[in-house]
Structures are given as structure tokens and as C-alpha cells.
């Protein structure tokens, strides 16, 4: 419901002060039209708002969020192209659609390869091995709090936030079954660290991928945000440290023996990321081209494993688990998915989320082509200072998906320096930590640690998290002053 209020407020900000619709012509050629006061504009805006509301109520209606967004994108571009056809020329509108489609395809291919590798590593039980290794160290609650926080901070820079958050969440739930206070605080810490870690790397999340994909910031420019993001994580963690129990949990340990090829898949994933960066920086090709090259490496490696092993590919991979009597305490799942089939890994992607982003990107691109985003840009970056605008947009990411917001700003094309783009990347990345529902890791952990980590338990620490938010912004202005 908070996301709904924020969205309606945004629409309310949008409608006043929009320019009078004009049809500009230059001879027989039709130039881009201002449709903000045309029936196609009002229709498209209403459709997009309705679709977003339907997506927000996914849990209530059980209607997958991709369905209304896909329909909205189709209706919006149908209205736009139809209007241009009535003016005698639809080439500009079709070209705009293709441009938005290209941006989405590059994003889709990048995420597809990344998640395929993560699914492959999951089947090889690499994440389970890391989880069991942490549990077996018999650390105190406070030590686990900091170790899980730092680990997820760095892991989330290359692994999607939901996967990284759930991995560390499994650790804290396993060791903290007798200490709900530890589980609650550790989950809050994981959400903050995950969002902060994903903000200083172009591989850390959808919003940073958008900025890198659009060529606004180069790959290594994102790392200027490392110190601000670290501060964002450390400030609330330091305060929460004193609320943690001081004793040690008691739990039986387990051991996992990784199957053949597991370490080489980790190596190939690193090579794939390097190819993506290299293709972008040296060949000036989309990063997705390097990722697809890396996917071919995984396919050839699976072919090699298929031909050189006696284990049938349809059966679980050769995995041995040695555990104590209480192995169930650390929640090691059954291994039944493992196979040497890349397309099986691709089939397990979060297609609902990927198709939701198609609808969001194409719908927002359509509203931008109509002229609405220029009006918002004029208000945010014309009447307000860029710094204040970026800070407010970052705060709104606690209610609205940060990837959607970032794509909207990129579509606005505000004329701001690199320091402001870094600020926007920072605020949109860490702003989602303010509420439990503000990011995918928070939503995922509420389900994983049900009854222990809740919306209200996270809300109690919102002032401290907000302190970290503004501390990170202050540090960014200090250490990256030459970027403004």
C-alpha cells in the first residue's frame, strides 16, 4: 500500500504544469509529437498506473506481476503508434520502440547468463558448502553478525541481492533458532549490507546495470561508491551491535564434499564477468556480448563433464554429505536438480520478474516518448537542485522498485555531472533498506525468517538506517568531490 501512495503522488506531481500539446511539422516529415494532453497520453498514463497497482497487489490477487505490465506496455505502444499513423508517419515511434526493446534485450541476456551460472553453482551445492562452513565455526552471535554482514556486502557486488541475502539469511536462521533477537537484528543487517554492496558495482543490481548499460558511467567509476556504501552498512551495524546477545549458539556442524567441476564453474563465472567487462571497455560492445560468450564456456564445460563422467546426466550430481545428528538444523536441502543441462538452468530463471521488467521498461519508455518524463525532469532537476532531487528519488525507492525508478530517470536524460549520477546510483541502491518491503532481500528474508524478522522489527531501526543513508551521502560528497 505505501508503494501505491507514492505512485499516486508521483502522478499528481506529473499532471500539473505540463506543456500544451502541439504537433510540430516540417514539410511532409512528422517530428516527435507532444502527446501529454492527447487522448493517447492520458490513456497510456492511466494504463501504466493501473498496471503498477495490479503488480503491487500481487500477493492479494495472486495475479503474477508480469501479466498487467506486459499488457500495459502493449497498449501504450499501440496508442502511440496508432496516433503517429493518423498523422501520416509512424517511423519515429517504431524507431523509439526498437530502441527501448534493444535496451531490454541487453539487460535480459546479461541477467540470463548471470542467473544461469548461479543456478549451476547452486546445483553444485557451492552455496550450501559456504553456509555449512560458516555454521561449523561455532562463532558467537556478535561475530556471526559481522561476518555475515561483511560477506554479503561483498558477495552482493557480483551476485543478485535476493540470492546473496537468502544465503546469509539461512545461516542466521540456522544458528539463531534459540535467539529471535539475533535473527531479527542479523536479518536487518543483511538487508542493509546487501543493498549497500550491490550499489558500488555495476553487477550488483538492476539499477546499476541500467546505468552501466546506458554508458552513463564506466565499469570502474562505480567503485568510487565503495567507501560511501561501506559507511552506509557500518553506521547502523555499529549501533545494532550493542543490542546483540553476547553468548554463543550451540549447533551441530556438517560437512559437504563438493561434486566434480564445482570449483571450475566458479572460475568460469569469473572469466565470464571478465569477458563482459572486456567487451565493454576494449571492444565497445554491449556487456551482454561478453556474457553470452561466457555462457558458451559453461555449455562446453557441461559437455565435457557429460562425456567424462559415469553419472547419468538425469541423476543428481555426485554429492556426499557427512553430518552430525542435528544436520536438519542447518537446513541442507535435497539435491535433485543437478544435471549437465544448461537449458534446465535457464528454465529456472525468475521469468516473472524478467517479464515484469520488460513491461516496466517499455511502458516507462512509452511515457517518456509521449513527453511525461520530460515534465517530471523539469520539476525535479529544473525547480529543485540535482542533489535534493536525487536524495528524494532515493528515499522513494523504499516504496517503488529501484530498477524502475532508475530507468525512468535515464529516460528523462537529465543534464547532470557524473558525481550526481553516482549520487543517484547510491541513493537508489541503499534507499530500499529503509523498509523491509523496500528491496527483494528484505521481502525474501521476511518469508525465510517468518515471525522473527518482520516489517515492524525492521521499522524500529529505521532512524538508524536513515542515519546511515545520510552519512553515506555526506561521505560521497566528501570523497568524490572532484566528480561534481
Automatic annotation (TrEMBL):
InterPro entries: Cit_transptr-like_dom, NhaD-like
Domain of life according to the entry: Bacteria
Subcellular location as annotated: Membrane
Sequence intervals crossing the membrane: 39-57, 69-86, 101-120, 144-175, 225-244, 287-305, 355-376, 388-410, 422-446, 458-479
Membrane topology note: Multi-pass membrane protein
Entry's Gene Ontology molecular function annotations: antiporter activity
GO CC terms of this entry: membrane
Domain Citrate transporter-like: residue ranges: 52-429
Keywords: Antiport, Ion transport, Membrane, Signal, Sodium, Sodium transport, Transmembrane, Transmembrane helix, Transport
GO biological process, alphabetically ordered: sodium ion transport
Signal peptide: 1-21
PANTHER family named in the record: SODIUM/PROTON ANTIPORTER 1-RELATED, SODIUM_PROTON ANTIPORTER 1-RELATED
Family: Belongs to the NhaD Na(+)/H(+) (TC 2.A.62) antiporter family.
Entry protein name: Sodium:proton antiporter
UniProt organism field: Methylomonas denitrificans
Amino acid at each position: 500500500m505505501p508503494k501505491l501512495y507514492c505512485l499516486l503522488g508521483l502522478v499528481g506531481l506529473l499532471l500539473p504544469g505540463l506543456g500544451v500539446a502541439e504537433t510540430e511539422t516540417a514539410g511532409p516529415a512528422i517530428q516527435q509529437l507532444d502527446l501529454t494532453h492527447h487522448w493517447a497520453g492520458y490513456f497510456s498514463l492511466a494504463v501504466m498506473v493501473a498496471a503498477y497497482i495490479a503488480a503491487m497487489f500481487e500477493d492479494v490477487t495472486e495475479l503474477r506481476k508480469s501479466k498487467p505490465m506486459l499488457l500495459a506496455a502493449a497498449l501504450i505502444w499501440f496508442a502511440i503508434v496508432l496516433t503517429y499513423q493518423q498523422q501520416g508517419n509512424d517511423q519515429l515511434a517504431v524507431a523509439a520502440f526498437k530502441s527501448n526493446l534493444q535496451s531490454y534485450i541487453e539487460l535480459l541476456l546479461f541477467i540470463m547468463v548471470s542467473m544461469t551460472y548461479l543456478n549451476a553453482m547452486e546445483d553444485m551445492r557451492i552455496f550450501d558448502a559456504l553456509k555449512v562452513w560458516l555454521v561449523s565455526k561455532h562463532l558467537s552471535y556478535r561475530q556471526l553478525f559481522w561476518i555475515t554482514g561483511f560477506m554479503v556486502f561483498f558477495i552482493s557486488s557480483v551476485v543478485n541481492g535476493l540470492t546473496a541475502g537468502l544465503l546469509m539469511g539461512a545461516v542466521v536462521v540456522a544458528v539463531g533458532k534459540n535467539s529471535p533477537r539475533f535473527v531479527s537484528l542479523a536479518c536487518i543487517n543483511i538487508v542493509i549490507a546487501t543493498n549497500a554492496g550491490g550499489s558500488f558495482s555495476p553487477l550488483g543490481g538492476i539499477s546499476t546495470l541500467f546505468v552501466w548499460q546506458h554508458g552513463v558511467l564506466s565499469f570502474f567509476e562505480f567503485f568510487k561508491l565503495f567507501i560511501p556504501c561501506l559507511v552506509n552498512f557500518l553506521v547502523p551495524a555499529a549501533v545494532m551491535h550493542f543490542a546483540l546477545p553476547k553468548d554463543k549458539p550451540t549447533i551441530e556442524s556438517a560437512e559437504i564434499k563438493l561434486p566434480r567441476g564445482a570449483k571450475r564453474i566458479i572460475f568460469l563465472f569469473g572469466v565470464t564477468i571478465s569477458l563482459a567487462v572486456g567487451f565493454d571497455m576494449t571492444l565497445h560492445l554491449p556487456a551482454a556480448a561478453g556474457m553470452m560468450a561466457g555462457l558458451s564456456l559453461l555449455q562446453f564445460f557441461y559437455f565435457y563433464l557429460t562425456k567424462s563422467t559415469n553419472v547419468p546426466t538425469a541423476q543428481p550430481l555426485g554429492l556426499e554429505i557427512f553430518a552430525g545428528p542435528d544436520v536438519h538444523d542447518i537446513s541442507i536441502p535435497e539435491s535433485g536438480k543437478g544435471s549437465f543441462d544448461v537449458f534446465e538452468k535457464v528454465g529456472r530463471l525468475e521469468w516473472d520478474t524478467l517479464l515484469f521488467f520488460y513491461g516496466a521498461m517499455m511502458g516507462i519508455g512509452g511515457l517518456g516518448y509521449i513527453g511525461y518524463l520530460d515534465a517530471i525532469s523539469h520539476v525535479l532537476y529544473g525547480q529543485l537542485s540535482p542533489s535534493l532531487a536525487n536524495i528524494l528519488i532515493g528515499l522513494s525507492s523504499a516504496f517503488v522498485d529501484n530498477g524502475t525508478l532508475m530507468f525512468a530517470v535515464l529516460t528523462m536524460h537529465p543534464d547532470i555531472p557524473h558525481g550526481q549520477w553516482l549520487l543517484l546510483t547510491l541513493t537508489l541502491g541503499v534507499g530500499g533498506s529503509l523498509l523491509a518491503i523496500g528491496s527483494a532481500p528484505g521481502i525474501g528474508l521476511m518469508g525465510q525468517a517468518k515471525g522473527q524478522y518482520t516489517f515492524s522489527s525492521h521499522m524500529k531501526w529505521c532512524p538508524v538506517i536513515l542515519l546511515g543513508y545520510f552519512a553515506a551521502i555526506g561521505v560521497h560528497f566528501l570523497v568524490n568531490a572532484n566528480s561534481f
